[in-house]
Amino acid sequence: MPNPVIQAHHINKRFGSLQAVDDLSFEVSPNTCFGFLGPNGAGKTSTMKMIYARSKRDDGGTIDIFGHDPNTEELAIKYFCGVVPQEDNLDEELNVIQNLRLFARFYDMDAKKADSRIDELLGFLELGEKRTALIRELSGGMKRRLVIARALLNEPKLLILDEPTTGLDPQVRHLIWDKLRQLKRAGTTMLLTTHYMEEAFQLCDTILIMHKGRNIMQGTPKELLAEHIEDYVLELTDPGKIDEVVQSALLADVRVDESGQIVRFYADDIDSLKAVADAIQDSQYYLRQSNLEDVFLKATGRTLNDRQ
Amino acid sequence: MTDNKQQLYPPLYKRLFSVWYRHARVYRQHIFSNAFPPFFEPLIFLVGVGLGLGRYIEPIDGRPYVQFLAIGLLITSSMWTAFFECTFGTFIRMEFQKTYDGMLAAPITANNLIVGEMLWAGSKGFFFSFAVLFMLTLVSLVAPDTMPMLPMPNVLIAPLIGFANALMFGAMALLITSFVKTINHFNFFMTGVISPMFFFSGVVFPVRELPRLIQPVAEFVPLTHSVRIIRCICDNNLTCNLLWDVLYIIIFTTVIGTLATKRLKKRLIK
User: Fold this and answer.
1) Residue A303: CA atoms inside 13 Å, Cβ hemisphere, count?
2) CB–CB contacts below 8 A, A to B
3) Is B47 within the bounds of a domain?
4) Same domain as A172, residue A239
5) I want to staple B110 with a disulfide (CB 3.0 to 4.6 A). Which of A119, A170, A174, B265 is the partner?
6) A177 and A247 belong to one structural domain
């Protein structure tokens, strides 16, 4: 295991009476993608902001980003970080290439170098034909890719992505995932927040599930699945016959989780779920492999909390 | 400093310049619509006051009224633009367009951003004062009856005073912005602070004509001082004591600017 490039120990962030981040610790290895997964209000964005010095952590904890502390070395960190914020914030008055040129100035890049980097990035993110398009003419997916291109201008060592594909269609999402994997292979370390389980599964080497500001579990996607959830799920959307099934002896090695109008049966052995399915054959059911979403919902609860 | 911690990010002056440049670049994108007001408004003024109202008013301090008012307008144009830029403009960039979220992800600190904002307001003040001066001078060359030539070369200092005045009003506007929660609140300040200042700071008529009780109030507000400076310079009046006015502008800008920076920084870096 190489030395971690990001180390956060016991960090806290409080806004008034709300403990947004609560004694959070984690370490990130170089050239990996580290994902924060959690419901809205879990403290993911607050954590990211403390890392790139957009927010000051409360006294007590420590953060080390490639040898720098964001509380005291803001500029050094911002210079080698690229940030893709949750909301697009491009200059609507300018076109694609003008937006990128303007941003390159913040890094004091010389114009020639900036232009060649911009060409390279527009090609990489498949925006080459949109060079002179106005921002309002771009689709949501194009704006998102442009924001990613902007974050990559200064060849960041660390790329911070706050919900990079929220609200995008599947094609664009897959394209962005593909590009991010290429960047990781090329040596970029990434921090990602998302509430898409599939995104976390596709991109992250390590996932930290946050809930109410706390680290509630952490591991590789496979570890989380293996350690925290049964292999298979049977979902039943018509709870009419549940009482008969629940009382039956079929449920010896099956875990039952009732919430709202859906009942879920979890088991490592698909045959025991098949037996349950047979018993309720005329009802609507769905038998599938368990996924990160099941882990996530088990960990963070199925009902909404006051921060969502 | 050790080798692996050498400073790679741009130095302070370049960071400030890049913030300033961002605003200038976006302003330039629509230069015709943006530059229309400072070039066109003086013409409206000349028709209204030069051809109309001014003919009914006695000269003030030996100047035809149209010229007296014109000297004041060189400065108020910079006040209006700086105030708009750092109230509505700043608020929109901060809350609606999320421009600052983008800039603060680059190697720019919140302080750099806010000071850059003030410098941009100052530059716009310079430009607006220049535009008004340019148009009035142009008309004087063509139609000296409507607009008597402004006192040359003294009046050429107007854009510089416009810069300092806009810096001061930019700082004040940023301080107001730091308190404002919704964009509608700016209306209070526009009508309650800026409009009265326009009328009672020696622009439209001399401060000495105000009731004795109110005169100290005029002394207290910023615009009075910038206007007094330009009038003294235009009058070639060596007996004026401008030290108080210059000091006022420097102290006001520094104190209010520092306060505004501190408060806005808290709003940006939570």
Assistant:
1) 7
2) 84
3) no
4) no
5) B265
6) no
For A92, other C-beta atoms within 10 Å of its C-beta total 13
Rounded CA gap, A44 and A185, in Å?
A: 25
Residue A2 tokens read as 């190489």
Q: Domain of residue B34: give its range.
A: 11-42+57-268
Q: List, in sequence order, the alpha helices (H) in A14-153.
A: 44-51, 74-80, 96-106, 111-124, 140-152
Residue B1 neighbours by CB distance under 10 Å? 6
- Asked whether A85 and B101 are in contact (CB, 8 A), the reply is yes
CA B263 to chain CA mean position, Å: 21
Determine, for residues A107 and B270 on separate chains, whether the beta-carbon distance falls below 8 Å: no
Answer left, alpha or beta for residue A238, where phi above 0 means left and psi between -120 and 50 means alpha: beta
Kindly provide the ipTM of the predicted complex, given to two decimals.
0.88
Give me the CATH number covering residue A29: 3.40.50.300
Least confident of A207-211, A225-229, B85-89, B254-258: A225-229
Contact A151 B8 (CB under 8 A): no
**Nearest C-alpha of chain A: how many angstroms from B139?**
34
Q: What is the mean pLDDT of chain B?
A: 92
Q: Are B175 and B254 in contact (CB under 8 A)?
A: no
- The count of structural domains within chain A is 2
CB A28 within 8 A of CB A184: no
CB–CB contact B18 A76 (8 Å):
no
Nearest to B99 among A56, A78, A91 (CB): A91
Tens digit of pLDDT for each residue in B214-233?
Answer: 889 898 999 999 999 999 99
Average pLDDT for runs of 10 along chain B of length 270: 66 96 94 89 84 86 91 95 96 94 95 97 97 94 88 94 98 96 92 91 91 90 95 85 92 98 94
Tokens of A39: 């419901």
DSSP structural state of residue B156: G
